[in-house]
Amino acid sequence: MEKQLKSLLKSLKINENLISTIMGGVVVVVMAAMIFNYFKTFNKSGQISDQAAVNLGEEEVLAKELPTTYKVVKGDDLWHISERFYNSGYNYVDIAKASKLANASAIEVGQELVIPKVVAKKATVIKAETAKKIETKTQTAKISIEGVKYTTVKGDYLWSIAVRAYGDGYKWTAIYNANKAKIGKNPSWLFTGVELVLPR
Fold it and tell me: How many domains does the chain contain in total?
């Protein structure tokens, strides 16, 4: 009985080594395929190729006529500059990186920014037909914040405050810009009991 058990354990060890070798080979093949796909997706300049952008889906569209430069004018911020070129404010990080900005929220009039050729992120600017539909809904939306000041409560977000104050969630940036010192660097962290100024 003891001899049979030992021989069974020996055969299992051999099988264990074989299985480990096969699994290692599979991992190597998968990694090689991933590396090949990575280099196939990116062109020589390190940017995503036009074909790769098409493959990413309808929301992620490669901005045309880029790269370019843009000179900052009074009232500009990276979010709105990004919307102008990509129809998405979320690409402000790409502009900040390409322009080598130490602080993305500190740009000056006359400063020249690099607008890189990158894939546009989720759209924050809507087409005219969609805007009309939203505007119709907005006109019927209940505006529950009417003053120029509002104190935050648990569960508040800048988007929801903008909807209740203006009937338009996209105006959260106006609230954030007017209250940066109180809110801090991250607009998605909103503490309770903070008195916000609502630009009118």
Answer: 3
